[in-house]
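User: Can you recover a sequence for this backbone? Please restate the input before giving your answer.

Assistant: Of course. Working from this structure:
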C-alpha cells in the first residue's frame, strides 16, 4: 500500500530528491500515508484560552504567547530568528512534537505563486502491501473509479475545498482540506478539516511548519504552463489562511507512521486559521460563502449509497494543480481488530489528495463531512478514510472551544 502523503516541492527538494526519484518511490509505495499528532481530546494539555495565539501583529511582526515562548526556549529555539529562516532547522531536538507546542507564526509572502505551484510532489515510502482483511470487518476490494476533474470555477463546484501547504524536513508539501462549520461561531467559521499526517509527522516526528490553507486553489483550473505566469490572486483568489492552532488525535501522535498505515483510523486534524494579510472582519466561511457540517454518527455503510472524495492529487499522473473527485458506494476496511473500521471507496487519486474531504448524507439526509482521505494502494485504485467518532469529535470541539470567546 502507499500513503497518500504530502507532496514535496520540486524546487526545494531537488538537492535531496529529484523528480525522477520521487516518481520511483511513488511506484513502489504501498500506502497513502497521512500523519497527525495531538493530545487526548479529553485531556487538553494546551491552554483553552486563545487570547494571544501565535500569529502576526498589526505591524507584521511575529507574536508568540509568553507561555509558548518559554517552552520553545527549552528547545533552544530563538524566535527572533524564526522568521529569517530558523524554521528550516529540523534538528530533532528543535522539531516540536507535543500538542501544546504547536506554533505557526505567519511569514507574510512566504507562500508566493512559485512556492505554491511547486508544492506538487509526494514523498511516499515503501510499505507492506498486504491487506488481508482477517481482522475486524473488511469488504472486497472495490473496483477502481477514475477520478473526474472538478468543474471550474472550483468555487462554484467545490466551494468548501482547498489546498493545504506546509513545510517539512523534505521540503514544501501539499495536502487537501475542507472548510467546516464551527459550533461556537455559526456562519462565521475559521475551521479547516484535514488529515493528521498533513500537520504532524506522527510517532517519529513533530508538527510541520508554515501550514497554510488556500481555498479554491487555482479556481479557474489553469494549466501548469499557464500557472507559470499566474498572479497570486489567480492562484489564491480567496487569500492564504495560516493555521493559528491545530489539533489531531493522540493516537496519531503515538502510532502514526508513513509505513503500513499505522494510525490511519485516527488520521484526522482540525485547524483554526487566520488570514495572512490580517483580519478584514470576515471569517473564512463568510469569505468563501460556505462551510460543511461534520457528521460524527454517519449511517452504517450498507445504508450509504455514495460518498464523494475531493482533493488535489499531485503524484503522477496528476500534477497537484487541479481538483479532482471520486464518487462510489463505500465499503469497509479493517487494519487491526482493536481499531475502528475505515471507509473505503474506489478512486484513482494519488498523493496530495490526502486530507481531502469525503461527503455523504448525514443522519438528517443533508450533505456532511464524514471522512477524509488517509491511505490507499500503490496501484491507486482505492482510497480509505477514518470513520469519525468520539475521538474526532473531541479534536473538533477542542479547537472550536479554544476560540469560543472571540
Amino acid at each position: 500500500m502507499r500513503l497518500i502523503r504530502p507532496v514535496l516541492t520540486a524546487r526545494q527538494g531537488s538537492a535531496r530528491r529529484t523528480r525522477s526519484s520521487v516518481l520511483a518511490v511513488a511506484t513502489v509505495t504501498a500506502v497513502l500515508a497521512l500523519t497527525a499528532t495531538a493530545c487526548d481530546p479529553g485531556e487538553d494539555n494546551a491552554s483553552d484560552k486563545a487570547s494571544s495565539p501565535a500569529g502576526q501583529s498589526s505591524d507584521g511582526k511575529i507574536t508568540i504567547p509568553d507561555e509558548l515562548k518559554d517552552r520553545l526556549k527549552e528547545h533552544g529555539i530563538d524566535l527572533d530568528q524564526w522568521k529569517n529562516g530558523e524554521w528550516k532547522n529540523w534538528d530533532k531536538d528543535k522539531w516540536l512534537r507535543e500538542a501544546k507546542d504547536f506554533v505557526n507564526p505567519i511569514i507574510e509572502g512566504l507562500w508566493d505563486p512559485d512556492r505554491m505551484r511547486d508544492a506538487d510532489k509526494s514523498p511516499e515510502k515503501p510499505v507492506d502491501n498486504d491487506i488481508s482483511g482477517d481482522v475486524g470487518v473488511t469488504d472486497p476490494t472495490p473496483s477502481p473509479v477514475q477520478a473526474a476533474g472538478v468543474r471550474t470555477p472550483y468555487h462554484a463546484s467545490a466551494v468548501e475545498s482547498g489546498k493545504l501547504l506546509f513545510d517539512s524536513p523534505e521540503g514544501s508539501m501539499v495536502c487537501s482540506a475542507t472548510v467546516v462549520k464551527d459550533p461556537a461561531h455559526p456562519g462565521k467559521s475559521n475551521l479547516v478539516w484535514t488529515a493528521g499526517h498533513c500537520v504532524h509527522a506522527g510517532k517519529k516526528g513533530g508538527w510541520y511548519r508554515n501550514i497554510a490553507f488556500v481555498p479554491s486553489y487555482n479556481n479557474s483550473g489553469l494549466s501548469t504552463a499557464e500557472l507559470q505566469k499566474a498572479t497570486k490572486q489567480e492562484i489564491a483568489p480567496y487569500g492564504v489562511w495560516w493555521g493559528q492552532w491545530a489539533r489531531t488525535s493522540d493516537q496519531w501522535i503515538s502510532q502514526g507512521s508513513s509505513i503500513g498505515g499505522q494510525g490511519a483510523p485516527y488520521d484526522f486534524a482540525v485547524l483554526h486559521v487566520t488570514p495572512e494579510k490580517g483580519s478584514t472582519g470576515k471569517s473564512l466561511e463568510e469569505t468563501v460563502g460556505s462551510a460543511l457540517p461534520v457528521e460524527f454518527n454517519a449511517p452504517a455503510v450498507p445504508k450509504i449509497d455514495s460518498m464523494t472524495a475531493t482533493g488535489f492529487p499531485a503524484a503522477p499522473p496528476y500534477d497537484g494543480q487541479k481538483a479532482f473527485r471520486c464518487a462510489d458506494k463505500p465499503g469497509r476496511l479493517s487494519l487491526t481488530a482493536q481499531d475502528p473500521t475505515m471507509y473505503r471507496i474506489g478512486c484513482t487519486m494519488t498523493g496530495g489528495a490526502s486530507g481531502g474531504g469525503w461527503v455523504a448524507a448525514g443522519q438528517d439526509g443533508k450533505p456532511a463531512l464524514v471522512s477524509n482521505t488517509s491511505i490507499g494502494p500503490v496501484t491507486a485504485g482505492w482510497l480509505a478514510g477514518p470513520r469519525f467518532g468520539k475521538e474526532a469529535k473531541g479534536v473538533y470541539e477542542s479547537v472550536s472551544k479554544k476560540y469560543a470567546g472571540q
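That completes the design. The CA atoms of residues 11 and 257 lie 26 Å apart.
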